[in-house]
Fold each of these.
Amino acid sequence: MIFGGTTEGRMAAEWCSSHNIHALYCVATETGFLSFSGIMTLVGRLDSDGIEALILRETPVLVIDATHPYAVEVKENIKTACDKTSTRRIRITREIGDTSGCQKFSGPDELIPWIAQREGIVFVTTGVKEAPLFTHIDGFAERIYFRMLPSVEGLKTCLELGYKPAHLILMWGPFSRDLNRAMFSAAGASILVTKESGAPGGFAEKISAARDLGMQIALLSRPKPPAGEAEGSLESTLALLEKYVCSAGLRECV
């Protein structure tokens, strides 16, 4: 059972498909739907009770948490459900890129006042879940450009919050350095707000483009995992998965 909606989740599902391992791929929205041989996709948001019920119904031998590094609530829900059902779990993490010269913030309580004290256009790439936060900035409709994944739900949310349609960019990334620079320049932005999303999120390209333009860069820091929580890269997770499926007799291994 793979909880994904990310590059790592897709690659884990693709690995399972290519190795004839049947898997259930769980994503929150339709944008994460996959179509691989031997892979079933379940779309919908689940709380810990829902995940626990799903595990009890499907009885997976292994759960892979490949959710986004900032998806704190769902990660905790997965952990709780696995602990309660005594199901083995692997959690994938991402390396953090070069953050030198960036202003880091542990949460919106620090970030929003910092932006409010500065002038200029702000280009936000944090994701639609954070859209309500920036409405607390005076003149946000004029100052904020918001880039997010293309979804009707996300667009509706931002319009209802009062964002200008012309300031909403719905595109599927990651984006090249040149394209980021073109977008930031077209918006006339002097501040970039983003997350430490790692290589799959195009982090390096965003930061490089902002530096090219002399922009200030504000980072919402990645949540720290709970004490004692083991994490591994995609590569190490797939290597561990290879050993696990062989030792468990899930397929023949050479």
Amino acid sequence: MPIENRVNKARILIESLPYMRRFEGKTFVIKYGGHAMVEESLKVSFVKDIILMRQVGIKPVVVHGGGPQIGQIMTRMGLKPHFVDGLRVTDQETVNVVEMVLAGKVNKDIVSLINLNGGRAVGLSGKDGHTIQARKRQHVRQGPDLETPEIIDLGWVGDVEKIDTTLLDLLSQSMLIPVVAPVGVGENGETYNINADSVAGALAVALQAEKLILLTDVLGVKDKSGKLISELNKEDVGGLIHQGVVTGGMIPKVETCVKSREGGVVSTHIIDGRIEHALLLEVFTDQGVGTCVR
């Protein structure tokens, strides 16, 4: 390797040193989803980033999605997925599949990959330790074609009611990395399917995390011209939604970021999980690679 390349590597290490010192002992909650969960090279890149964070003293908590995997298993079982306003309608048979796929197959695959690459991970769902207590979601559909708002029954789809951090606190005292499936438990022991971004935000607030980081399949939040916006504040977010610049699936993500900031999380980030080592680039470099909501 030419000496210039080795010198550049040394400069990158020096640039990251102040961030390693600043974040030692801090908790990062990371929502893992999209292409980063599908492409092999990106999966390995992600788990190595997580392992390095833990090695330098950061306490990462991983919350994962798994929508495509749920859809695949349902199709194999002859079940037809049904969505309302982008939300999966979850009857009793579907919620059983959701729990099996998220808390079983997907969760354990992530744990296994972290362990295989030199880390120490533990998989759990919101049912473990009563970590994620949930309530049934009341979904209200509104629109110009409706005379009055319509309440839609989504089945076993839930919102976070309360977070009990006891189990996560115990894990944080060790070198173990918690990997959390977004499955919650109701007051009578029923299972709820919960949006993974919402779970990550709620966990970040409950743990008073230093950072909430959401991995997506886009660069981050963009302006009208399509240029990446590196930093946003609460007022910026409201204006971009009102102007129609932030639309679709990005709206709940930026709203989760704002809500988490209001709940005490120091900074929140939306980054492109399709970039190898996106986590390290966002956390340990001066410029970062995504959008930071401060």
Amino acid sequence: MFDNLMVELGPWAWWLLGLALLAAELIVPGVFLVWIGLGAIVVGALSLLFWDNAFWVWQLQGLVFAAASVIAILIGRRYLYNNNQVTDEPFLNQRSASLVGRTATLDQPITEGRGRIRLNDTYWTVNGPDLPIGTRVKVVSSNGRELTVEPV
């Protein structure tokens, strides 16, 4: 069946597969099908060159497709992960990390190393030395949902 499809569509079968994968990338979240689609388009371009040659059988085309897809994935990952752009809000999705350096007043005393402060409209659990209510503290670090504070 695959042999017949390859003979009927010729080198355009790879182009169609590549375009279908690129279109599927618009529907499926993530940036993964793009690289496989580019691998299919590369094989389509090579098929236009080598279609009449005896060595360009569908098995070799499949191997070239797999290799081209892996190479495209590796190049794409390198590009995406090394293309860190400087932003004016580096802690946009790291709410607790954005609080480091802020000062607040204790709403509950820190006893046995734990207490609470209010920053903006949120109450935060804090760790630090034992301190009474009303003490001004500074956030020195964050660990997920807990902040570490020290007296100002």
Amino acid sequence: MNSRKQVPTLLLIALFAPLCACHRSAKIEIRAAQKALPPIILWAWERPEDLEFLDPERFGVAFLAQTLIIKGEDVIYQPRHQPLKLSPETKLIAVTRIEGKKTIGEQPALSDAQRQRLLSLIVKTTSLQNVTAVQIDYDVAKSEREFYRTLLIDLRKQLPAGMPLTMTALASFCVADRWLQDLPVDEAVPMIFRMGLDNQPIKAYLESDNDFREPLCRHSYGIALDEPLHMKFQSSRRLYVFSNRAWQKQDVDQIPFIK
């Protein structure tokens, strides 16, 4: 693979120029589709939800489409079971939750076959009605990062042209851990809630008008209604909101900086 054969420079330019141009065009298209999403996205997890009251110009919905559990060599598929009522105009983000077993003897193999199975199931969510973007929710362990990176690279290649690919990210990844850099996603949503031991240090950091260090995390915020934040939100960023109960109109009215 490490060939020493010299290729004329002009030939290299001729070969790669069209490829680079296509890459730039695709990225511009993806960003345009990402910008077209509403400014506020409600997460709809595995429970019955009636969101027909939403204004589709202001609100979109990121719904849990499936949970994929990686265990040994297996991928255990759990589809959404709960109903989701929406107006036909509401833009949807299909969320795939990936969970890796931590029990000794059940840890995921992280094999090529396992990755291909995940890819196939995630790509299928793009055919669901009104889905305009895909999001991956994976609390990835350090030992699983390269597997996840390769999964995202392969997924980006298989998604329909122009479809945004987003991911959730632990807030610590956005503040102190730079492993997210160069991932082929349009947005890494920093989860500023349920942060465990990182809760107070990260909230103090953000409430002191500091920003996320990772550029991918500077497009959005992920918050929960039951965890108020005393920080300055940049209104140009998209807001993803989690509720620990089925959404009601009065809950939506509580969301910070309604646009």
